[in-house]
Structures are given as structure tokens and as C-alpha cells.
Write a structure and sequence with these properties.
Oligomer: single chain
CATH architecture of the largest domain: 3-Layer(aba) Sandwich
Number of strands: 10
CATH class of the largest domain: Alpha Beta
Number of helices: 12
Strand order of the largest sheet: 3-2-4-1-5
Number of domains: 3
Order of helices and strands: HEHEHEHEHEHEHEHEEHEHHH
Distance between the termini: 56 Å
Length: 291
């Protein structure tokens, strides 16, 4: 291990910004390269210096911390660029995970690169990939949304876009909004499977699977499940084949879907043509997605 740590130390170059991923909960998840960069850096840009000081202290690292947050990122970029111009090595970290992914860091990285300096990623723990890795989804594609909208109306519009998604959707949510978010999901996806990953890598790590209703019931039965950091995984829609739909059923659906809401059009088209209501509904969604 010491050999690899020494090699990481020797690979660090001056006048470069290192974007360093840090643990999302379990301190043991930090990499040797991350430790080497933080040990060698002349400056460490932190989202919250108090939180980052605890991480550095845990590994006996004494580095000069400067606060680079969302509200001062543009202004601090000038100071960081000046430090790089003087040949210093700078590291950028957030409270947990990777900077610039639902955290400050993107503006700083862009400004530093525009100034002609290297921006080097130091990879590590990821709540998104951690949740996806245990979800049991075999497809190669997924969509990461970040935090769900705080308002119900905005969430419902977003969920409507995912009704026919044949790929998993991953999003973050906060404890004080999780109940409302699940309520909106239940209205849009009553039968879809989801996974609620909570406190990943931490002491009370929990993974809840099932329909939205199943997860809601689990949260109601144990209030502790509504605490901590949360990642939601919406499983892909299991589509019914529409190839077997009679041409007449598709024709009727095409006409009705122009004038009526999709759900109502599917119900009427099924009554008129004898076609499968769910298949007709899914077919109309594919038409909308192509528009």
C-alpha cells in the first residue's frame, strides 16, 4: 500500500486543480490517490471548511482550507487562478462525493481550464453509481436527474416525462420532501418498481424495494426510514408489446388521442376496438415522445 501511495504522491503536478471525490459516508471509502493529493495540495477548496476539516483531521492532514461555495465560486476562481499562476497545487472537494455533481465546482473548473491550467479528476465514491450497482438493472443506459423539483406541480410534470421511459431514472431527494415526492410518484407510477437507497455506506444504510406503495408503507411503519441522505431509483417501464394491436385499434387511438387526454383516449379506444387499454396507452406515449 505504501508503494502505491508514494507513487500517487510523485504523480502530483504543480499548477493544477485536482477535483477530488471524497467519501459519501464511510471514511474508509477514500482512495490512496485522494489522500495523496490532499496531503500535497497547497490549497484545498472546500464547500464547508468545518466539514472538510473533520475529514482531513481523520487522516492527519493539515492543509490550508479555503471556502468555495455556490455563492462565491466565481469570485474565488480569481484567487485560485492566481495561486495556480504562482505554481501552487490546488484541490477542490465538496462535503461528500464529487464536486460539480449537484455540488459547487463546475464554475471553478471551467474558469481554471479557460485560464490555461490543467483540471484533473480524482475519482471516488458516488451515491449514483452505488445505488445503481445494487439495483439489479441490466440495461446499459440510465438517466440521472439530480434533486427532484421541490414543488408538486413541477414534480408531476417531470414524472409524466418518465412514464414511458425504458431506462432507469435516478434522482436525489431530501427527508422533508420524500413523503410528498412518493405521493406524486404513486399517482404517476402506481405499478412501477422503485428503490429507495438511504444513508449509503453509513451505519443505517437501507435499501427499500417494491412498488411506490410498498415503499410508502415501509416509511409509514418506520419513521427512521425518512431520515438521512436519499437516492431514488425508478425502474424502467415494462412495456406490453403493441405489435399485436389490431390496425383498427391503432387507428381509433390515433384519432382519439388528438382530441382527448391520453388516458381517456385509451379507455374509449379500447371500448370501441376491443384493443388492450394499457397497450393503447403505451402506444400513444411513444407517439408523443416522437413529436
Amino acid at each position: 500500500m505504501q508503494k502505491h501511495y508514494q507513487k500517487a504522491l510523485e504523480s502530483i503536478i504543480p499548477a493544477a486543480l485536482y477535483v477530488v471525490a471524497t467519501p459519501i459516508g464511510n471514511l474508509s471509502d477514500i482512495t490512496l490517490r485522494a489522500l495523496a493529493v490532499l496531503q500535497r495540495a497547497d490549497l484545498v477548496c472546500a464547500e464547508d471548511t468545518r466539514v472538510s476539516a473533520q475529514l482531513l483531521s481523520a487522516y492527519g492532514i493539515t492543509a490550508k482550507l479555503v471556502s468555495v461555495r455556490e455563492h462565491n465560486e466565481q469570485q474565488m476562481a480569481d484567487k485560485i487562478i492566481a495561486a495556480l499562476q504562482s505554481g501552487q497545487t490546488v484541490a477542490q472537494i465538496s462535503d461528500a462525493g464529487t464536486p460539480a455533481v449537484c455540488d459547487p465546482g463546475a464554475k471553478l473548473a471551467a474558469r481554471v481550464r479557460e485560464a490555461g491550467f490543467k483540471v484533473v479528476p480524482v475519482v471516488g465514491a458516488s451515491a449514483v453509481m452505488a445505488a445503481l450497482s445494487v439495483a439489479g438493472i441490466t440495461g446499459p443506459h440510465f438517466y440521472f436527474h439530480g434533486f427532484l423539483p421541490p414543488k408538486s406541480g413541477e414534480r408531476q410534470k417531470l414524472f409524466e416525462r418518465f412514464q414511458a421511459a425504458d431506462y432507469p431514472v435516478i434522482a436525489f431527494e431530501t427527508p422533508h420532501r420524500i413523503a410528498a415526492a412518493l405521493e406524486d410518484m404513486a399517482a404517476c407510477f402506481p405499478q412501477r418498481r422503485i428503490m429507495l437507497a438511504r444513508e449509503i455506506t453509513k451505519t443505517f444504510e437501507t435499501f427499500l424495494h417494491g412498488t411506490v406503495g410498498d415503499v410508502q408503507a415501509a416509511l409509514r411503519s418506520d419513521g427512521n426510514q425518512m431520515r438521512g441522505e436519499m437516492v431514488l431509483v425508478l425502474y424502467p417501464e415494462q412495456k406490453e408489446k403493441t405489435d399485436s394491436l389490431p390496425e383498427e385499434a391503432q387507428r381509433v387511438m390515433k384519432i382519439l388521442s388528438v382530441q382527448l387526454p391520453t388516458k381517456q383516449a385509451a379507455e374509449l379506444a379500447a371500448q370501441i376496438s376491443g384493443g388492450n387499454k394499457k397497450a393503447l396507452y403505451d402506444l400513444a406515449l411513444t407517439w408523443k415522445n416522437k413529436d
